[in-house]
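Inputs:
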Amino acid sequence: MTAIRREDRKGRTFLLTRNLAKGYRVYNEELQMKDGEEYRTWDPFRSKLAAAILKGLPEDVIREGDRVLYLGTSTGTTPSHVSDIIGEKGLLIGVEFAPRVAREFVENVARQRKNVIPYVADARDPSKYNISKVDVVYCDIAQPDQTEIAMENCRQMLREGGKLLLVVKARSIDVLKEPAKVFGEEKTRLEDGGFRILSIIELSPFEKDHALIYATN
Ligand SMILES: C[S@@+](CC[C@H](N)C(=O)[O-])C[C@H]1O[C@@H](n2cnc3c(N)ncnc32)[C@H](O)[C@@H]1O
């Protein structure tokens, strides 16, 4: 049984993930019992991964048992759902460079979940969290040079045939340029770096001027 559930309510689709930390909420999300299991609602207005899945990213892009390098955990909204999806056999290595935010991530997420290892580190210096190969690199750090940062992390830690999920916030890269142009340029940057683009998912109406690029090495 997959850890993700879809529900249709009044013509709208909602996502839920099976809660690995029973009884705990991370961002005041709703908890619901379904078929004897506890699920957490997954808000696409708070999580770009949920938005991307609702807009067509394959639901099984991250799977049970996967090792995920997550760059830019913030306080843990999306990482907590990734932790639900990969389950007890998976591992999420979470990197966040802002110490106060990283502390909240530890309190809210890592403490209740054995499959999460937090690092307070700069994603520009992967030697600080040198880990063995992962199946997925998820990058959401909203930095102008984030594509380079993501690619360097992949070169060092993504297994061959692994997946890169890169959140692009157009305004963080160039406030004046048309978002579609920024997404195209980041796509080219990835292709020049040897990645194959599988899809580019624009995240409106959940997030304005954002896209998620799904690529493989
Ligand atoms: C948009 S938020 C991430 C939201 C989170 N991914 C989620 O969906 O719940 C971006 C985060 O990346 C962190 N960040 C930015 N640059 C970073 C870097 N170079 N290394 C590590 N973390 C970074 C910021 O401190 C911030 O918490």
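Residues 139 and 146 are 8 Å apart (CA to CA). Flag for discussion at group meeting.
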